[in-house]
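Let's sit down with a protein and look at its sequence and fold side by side. Which protein we use is up to you, so please pick one and set it down. Label the sequence line and the structure token line clearly, so we can match residues to local backbone shapes. Go ahead whenever you are ready, and we will take it from there:

***
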Amino acid sequence: MRPGTRSLGICLALCLMTACSRSYATSQAGLPTGALTITTVGSEAVVTVEIAETEATREVGLMGRTDLAPDAGMVFLFEDPFQGGFWMKNTLIPLSIAFWDTNGRIVGILDMQPCETDTCPTYAPQKPYVGAVETNLGYLAEHDVKVGDTVVLDR
């Protein structure tokens, strides 16, 4: 065996093991990613999402981003039903948001505008929810998403 041949073989074996092992996707922001399927009366809308499931990641959300792919968004998950609102402080992209309950049923849909002042409005559905998805403004309307439709998050 020539010098270095063994180390090359070990390196190749490790590379193959790494390539074959299961990995979980993360976004450029380091958040887990997935697909959110929204089932409407006539069709389905699939949104490629980043998942914010900690208080710290939910607080940052999409702040500071200058664009969002047409079929992309961010999902916010809560362990228990929540009634607080979202705000658009330092969020540069106009967004639509859908909130869902423990049964995966959408309980509210709102449109939100960027806010650069110190006092920004909050957006809440007036019902408890365990998840929300932010998309580009108009995406939900374009896909005929309505209150009562269902969501499934695939991680």
Summary: DSSP finds three helices and nine strands in the chain. Residues 1-24 have pLDDT under 50 and may be disordered. Residues 5-20 form the longest helix (16 residues). The helical segments are 5-20, 55-60, 139-142.
